[in-house]
């Protein structure tokens, strides 16, 4: 289902170019791929216009009466594309006007969450804000050598020793492709590497789920055509030993998925690839290298900086809104009581009986 027609997509992309702050995750091509793989319910594209010209857009969906943002755990950041603060405010008002009992919008940056919360408060709607993720990123505001001096020197020396051992096995090289040539073969090889080791065994690899694989193939096709796709491969004597699927615009590099050959785990090909790709962002003069996802330990080896990614739930001032809020709060209380009871029982159980 192509729920974004070509005319709107062209306007949307032009608005994204004009505002300068929109990432690939805000583009119509991202949402077309996302909907093809994960969409359910009815899509609703919220538009703000002035004299017929698009000045704001936010893709939503309605499912079982609830209005939701078009995001999930494959999303890094979600939110409005808007020409100015007035357009953001108008989009917020339009979303709230379309809300039934409640609206849930996830993966918001703090600024967008604040704007939507303020709009909800002006309508005297109840809100609930949660932190979904604390997503690591490397700010590129100095030269690469200065950046490295701020990291763990012992760990970096260990990494350099591993690189030398890898290089001692053959010719080590980095290839970064934009996907314009032989993309299906490139994806097949990248997906194969990504599924090696624990991801394939645990069922979290891209190829473990048909909808996830469908999404990344559709996304890569659009991103390659739009100039956003980057597939980075670390090769040893021409054989791929680690690979990333990434998006990249003029300001930032977005690290989506990665994998490496587990037979070379002791030599850390994945970490060598990460080092070289972060260095590449510095060399290109980008603004940030976005590690995405949660603040996992291996990501925090590279940075101490985190984005707070928010989820906002808005409850309408209505009987349905009030009942939805009451039900949510009731579930939260039950959850806390169960957790407290489980903790109390564990403390009360003698260690010998555990």
Topology (SSEs and partners):
Layout: H1 6-19, H2 28-38, E1 42-50, E2 53-63, E3 66-69, E4 81-82, H3 85-98, E5 102-108, H4 110-122, E6 126-139, H5 144-149, H6 153-167, E7 172-177, H7 183-194, H8 198-202, H9 210-226, E8 229-236, E9 239-248, E10 252-260, H10 269-284, E11 288-290, H11 297-300, E12 305-315, H12 319-348
Parallel strand pairs: 3-5, 10-11
Antiparallel strand pairs: 1-2, 2-3, 2-4, 5-12, 6-11, 6-12, 7-8, 8-9, 9-10
Helix pairs in contact: 2-9, 3-4
Describe the structure.
This protein has helices at 6-19, 28-38, 85-98, 110-122, 144-149, 153-167, 183-194, 198-202, 210-226, 269-284, 297-300, 319-348, and strands spanning 42-50, 53-63, 66-69, 81-82, 102-108, 126-139, 172-177, 229-236, 239-248, 252-260, 288-290, 305-315. The termini are far apart. Strands 1, 2, 3, 4, 5, 6, 7, 8, 9, 10, 11 and 12 form a twelve-stranded mixed beta sheet that branches. Helix 2 (28-38) runs antiparallel to helix 9 (210-226). The protein has twelve helices and twelve strands. It has two domains: 6-134 and 309-341, Aminopeptidase, CATH 3.40.630; 141-286, Gcn5-related N-acetyltransferase (GNAT) (Aminopeptidase, 3-Layer(aba) Sandwich), CATH 3.40.630.30. Helices cover 44% and strands 27% of the residues. A hairpin with a 2-residue loop joins strand 8 (229-236) and strand 9. The protein is of the alpha+beta class. The radius of gyration is 23 Å and the shape is globular. The longest helix is centred in the last third of the chain and has 30 residues, at 319-348.
């Amino acid at each position: 289902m192509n729920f974004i027609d070509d005319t709107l997509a062209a306007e949307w992309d032009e608005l994204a170019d004009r505002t300068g702050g929109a990432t690939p995750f805000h583009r119509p091509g991202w949402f077309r791929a996302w909907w093809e793989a994960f969409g359910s319910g009815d899509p609703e594209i919220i538009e703000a216009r002035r004299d017929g010209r698009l000045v704001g857009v936010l893709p939503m969906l309605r499912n079982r009466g609830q209005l939701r943002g078009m995001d999930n755990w494959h999303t890094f950041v979600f939110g409005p594309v808007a020409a100015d603060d007035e357009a953001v405010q108008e989009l917020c008002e339009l979303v709230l006007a379309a809300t039934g009992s409640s609206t849930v919008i996830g993966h918001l940056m703090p600024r967008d969450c604040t704007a939507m919360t303020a709009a909800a408060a002006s309508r005297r709607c109840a809100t609930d804000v949660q932190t979904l993720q604390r997503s690591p990123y490397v700010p590129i505001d100095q030269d690469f050598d200065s950046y490295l001096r701020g990291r763990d020197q012992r760990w970096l020396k260990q990494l350099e020793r591993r690189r030398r051992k890898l290089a001692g096995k053959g010719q080590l090289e980095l290839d970064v492709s934009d996907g314009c040539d032989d993309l299906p073969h490139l994806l097949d090889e990248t997906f194969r590497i990504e599924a090696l080791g624990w991801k394939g065994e645990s069922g979290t690899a891209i190829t473990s789920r048909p909808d996830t694989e469908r999404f990344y193939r559709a996304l890569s096709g659009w991103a390659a055509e739009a100039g956003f796709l980057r597939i980075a491969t670390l090769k040893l004597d021409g054989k791929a030993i680690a690979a990333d699927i990434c998006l990249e615009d003029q300001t930032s590099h977005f690290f989506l998925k990665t994998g490496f050959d587990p037979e070379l785990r002791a030599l850390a090909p994945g970490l060598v690839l990460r080092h070289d790709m972060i260095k590449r962002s510095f060399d290109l003069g980008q603004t940030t290298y976005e590690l995405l996802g949660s603040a996992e330990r291996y990501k925090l080896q590279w940075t101490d900086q985190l984005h707070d990614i928010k989820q906002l739930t808005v409850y309408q001032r209505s009987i349905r809104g009030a009942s939805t809020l009451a039900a949510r709060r009731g579930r939260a209380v039950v959850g806390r009581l169960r957790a407290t009871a489980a903790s109390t029982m564990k403390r009360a159980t003698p260690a010998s009986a555990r």
